[in-house]
Amino acid sequence: MIEYTYPKAAGLHIKSTKTMAKKPRKIKTAKGLRLKIVNPDSAGIDIADGEMQVCVPEDRDGDNNRRFGSFTEDLIEICEWLRVCRINTVAMEATGVYWIPLYLKLKDYGFDVILANPTQVKNFTQDKTDAADAESLMLQHSYGLIKPSFQPENITRQIRNLARHRMTIVDKSGQETQRMQKAMEMMNIKLSTVISDVLGKSGQAIIRAILDGNHDPKSLAELADPKCKASKETIAKSLEGTWDADKLFMLKQSVDCYDFYQKQLAECDKMIESLLAEYTAEIDIKSNKFVRTRKRTSQKNAVAFDMELYAHAVFGVNIMAMPGMSSNSMLQLVAELGHDFTDKFETCAKFCKWANTAPSNKISGGKLLSSHMKKRKNPVGQVLRICANAVRNEKSEMGAYFRRMKSKSGHNQAVVATAHKMARILYAMVKYNREYNPAKVGCTEKELLIKKRDRAQKALQKLEQKLKEAS
């Protein structure tokens, strides 16, 4: 068993343990092969909003299948009872968000907790009751038949919660931007037609001047930055509207909401940075020398701290060097994976399958029946898809690979194929502590053109030979 100690942050947990889930084993008997009990000290818990059904082996207590409440004192009582019953590993279903308090409480008490996907756990008993479900979980876990779900540890979970909350704030901010555009369109103000971004310097200056009472198109057009492609006359024409009081009120409300969400975003970034500082100061990993990439990234909704430096401290390598990677993408990967994800996924293939970037092959009778991607969302897979889509026009080895896959199978398949390659590269970089090497990705655009030319020349030579033989 490996122990990790993290600093106390936000009143959460300091110490956690991580063990690899035991796999099912077969034993030979006089009557044939049988499954061996690999987790004799196991328990199963059926989770619900108002109650917890806990089952332990029959030899541990006279009433081995008990029902508890869901208040904090009930969770403590569950942990104390499991300790009295000499239980060291627990299996539970991931039911909504109701499992989180008990999961964290069990981790605090030092139990090895296996979180099971409800779609992969079936009740083999006849009756469908809470007691039967708990007993079925305990039975399957004792034989090592439950596949554990990936879960980050302690402070990484806090960073993940805030990173996901940050995405929600960004989405809400985007919705308010759409409402601004809607209010202006209803007044026939075509600002979004002549200015590419209404949230930019020119767009915000004009919108806030409108809310301050300036409705003169020419004076409003003068607020636009000289770098705007549209002329002052065109911008002034787009600002000739009806200026309805109700629409102006809607515009003001949307701007106020947008400002509020931007303030919330700044506060969220400060909290995330403080957690990252604690996290990187506590972990001990082998790191290469930090070399900044100097990559130009979008400033819109970007994190307000040096995410490249924090990501290097967590993973030991600079993943910003990967094509298509941005500060927001790095934050999501750090929050979702943590520094030790390569220890939890034994092979790169398992990591890619979990991230939903590898095809789900169905083989029967030696034939491939289907290789469609599963229809499920994985945050890491979504981030890698965004990065893959960003390299579609890049003049790099990854960009050339994307375009080659696109010519074969189409855009959507190219996104998945490139995301899969990025997942393999990310795993290898962190696992073996190696920096990004473009030469390992594939051929450059120039090398591909040279190969194409050589193939065409060989085909031409064969054709000329056939012409000589025919004559």
Arithmetic mean pLDDT: 87
Regions with little confidence, pLDDT below 50 for 5+ residues: 1-19
Q: What's the total number of strands?
A: 11
Cα shape: globular
How many DSSP helices? 17
Structural class: alpha+beta
Total domains = 3
Rg, rounded, reads: 29 Å
Gap between N and C termini: 79 Å
| Main β-sheet description | 5 strands, mixed
Strand order of the largest sheet: 7-6-5-8-9
Portion in strands: 5-15%
Query: What is the chain-wise order of helices and strands?
Result: EEEEEEEHEHEHHHHHHHHHHHEEHHHH
What helical percentage do the residues reach?
Answer: 40-55%
Q: Which tags fit this structure?
A:
471 residues, alpha+beta, Nucleotidyltransferase, domain 5, 3 domains, 5-stranded mixed β-sheet, two-stranded antiparallel sheet, disordered N terminus
Give a structural overview.
This protein is α+β, with helices and mostly antiparallel strands and 471 residues long. The protein has three domains: 126 residues, Ribonuclease H-like superfamily/Ribonuclease H (Nucleotidyltransferase, domain 5), CATH 3.30.420.10; 115 residues; 141 residues, no CATH class. Helices cover 51% and strands 11% of the residues. It is built from 17 helices and eleven strands. The strands form four sheets. It has a five-stranded mixed sheet with strand order 7-6-5-8-9. Strands 1-2 form a two-stranded antiparallel ribbon. Strand 5 and strand 6 form a beta hairpin. Helix 4 runs antiparallel to helix 11. The termini are far apart.
